[in-house]
Design goal:
Layout: E1 2-7, H1 11-24, E2 29-32, H2 36-46, E3 49-50, H3 54-60, E4 61-66, H4 70-89, E5 95-98, H5 105-108, E6 121-125, E7 135-141, H6 149-156, E8 160-164, H7 170-178, H8 180-197, H9 202-223, H10 227-234, H11 240-250, H12 253-271
Parallel strand pairs: 1-2, 1-4, 2-3, 4-5, 5-6, 7-8
Antiparallel strand pairs: 6-7
Length: 272
C-alpha cells in the first residue's frame, strides 16, 4: 500500500504533493484529479503513479489528502464512505486529511456516516510555499487519531514548518499563513518596480527583492527579536532607510496588511 494519495492536485494539492514526494519518495504517492491531464502532468514531473478514479486512489493508499474545492468535498466523502466501510471490515483503515478552507472536522463527519465507523480525520492548512520546502502548515486533529499524527507529520516533514494548533484558530491561521504569500508577492514586485525606476535591471531587481525578503524573514525567526526592533536596527538617524520607512507609513502599508488578513479571515468563514 502506498503512503499517501492526493485527490485534487491544483495549486495547493500539487504544491503539497511536491513536498510530500521529497519526504517519502515518489513510489509512495498516487495522484488523482478530476481533470486527468493535470494529475498526469504532475505524476510525470514527480515520477509517481496516477489513479483512474478517486476510489482507486483511496483503495491504494493509507493517508488520503483531500485538495478539492469546498463545495465538492462533501459529495466526494459520501461517495467514498462505502469504500472506507469495506476496507475497515478487513482491518485496513484510511486516514482522511482535509486541506479545505472553512470546513471543520465536525462539518465533514456526517458525510462519512456511510463508513459505519469513526473515520480518522486530520485537518491541515498549508500554503503554496510547501512546494519548495519553505511552507507553513497548521495541523489539527479530531478524536481517535492520535496514532496517525506521526504519519501525517512524516509526509509533511520536507514541506517546511508544521505547527499543531487548535481548530478554533484555523481560519485565522489560513488568513495569515495560507493567504499570506499572495500578499507578499505584490510587495516584492512593487519593491522591484521601485528599483527598476532607479535604473536597476528587472531580473536583478526581482532577485534582490526576493532574497532580501527571505533574509528578513529568517532574521525574525532565528534572532528571536521583535520585527520592530529589527527595523530600528536598520534605520540610522536621518538616513535613507528611515526615509523609506516614512513613505511606507504614509502609504498605509500597515493598515493595508492588517485589513488584508481580516478580509481573508472573514471570507474563509463564509466559505464554511
Amino acid at each position: 500500500m502506498k503512503k499517501a494519495a492526493f485527490i485534487g492536485v491544483g495549486n495547493m494539492g500539487g504544491a503539497l504533493a511536491r513536498g510530500a514526494c521529497r519526504a517519502v519518495g515518489p513510489d509512495q504517492l498516487i495522484l488523482f484529479n478530476r481533470t486527468a491531464v493535470k494529475a498526469e502532468a504532475l505524476a510525470e514531473e514527480l515520477g509517481c503513479a496516477v489513479a483512474g478514479s478517486a476510489a482507486d486512489a483511496v483503495w491504494a493508499a493509507e493517508y488520503i489528502f483531500l485538495g478539492v474545492k469546498p463545495d465538492g468535498l462533501r459529495p466526494l466523502l459520501e461517495e467514498l464512505a462505502p469504500l472506507l466501510r469495506d476496507r475497515h471490515r478487513v482491518g485496513e483503515d484510511k486516514v482522511m486529511v482535509s486541506m479545505v478552507a472553512g470546513l471543520t472536522i465536525e462539518d465533514l463527519r456526517p458525510h462519512l456516516a456511510g463508513a459505519g465507523y469513526y473515520v480518522p480525520i486530520v485537518r491541515i492548512m498549508p500554503n503554496t510555499c510547501v512546494a519548495v520546502g519553505k511552507g507553513m502548515t497548521a495541523l489539527c486533529v479530531g478524536e481517535a487519531v492520535a496514532e496517525h499524527i506521526g504519519g501525517v507529520e512524516e509526509i509533511l516533514s520536507a514541506t517546511g514548518r508544521v505547527e499543531r494548533i487548535s481548530e478554533g484558530l484555523m481560519d485565522q491561521f489560513s488568513a495569515l499563513a495560507g493567504c499570506g504569500p499572495a500578499f507578499v508577492y505584490p510587495y516584492i514586485e512593487a519593491l522591484a518596480d521601485g528599483a527598476v525606476m532607479t535604473g536597476l535591471p528587472r531580473k536583478q531587481a526581482v532577485e534582490y527583492a526576493a532574497q532580501m525578503v527571505l533574509g528578513a524573514a529568517a532574521m525574525v525567526l532565528e534572532s528571536g527579536k521583535h520585527p520592530g526592533q529589527l527595523k530600528d536596527e536598520v534605520c540610522s538617524p536621518g538616513g535613507a532607510t528611515i526615509a523609506g520607512v516614512a513613505e511606507l507609513e504614509r502609504g498605509g502599508l500597515r493598515a493595508a496588511a492588517m485589513n488584508a488578513v481580516l478580509a481573508a479571515c472573514r471570507r474563509s468563514r463564509e466559505l464554511g
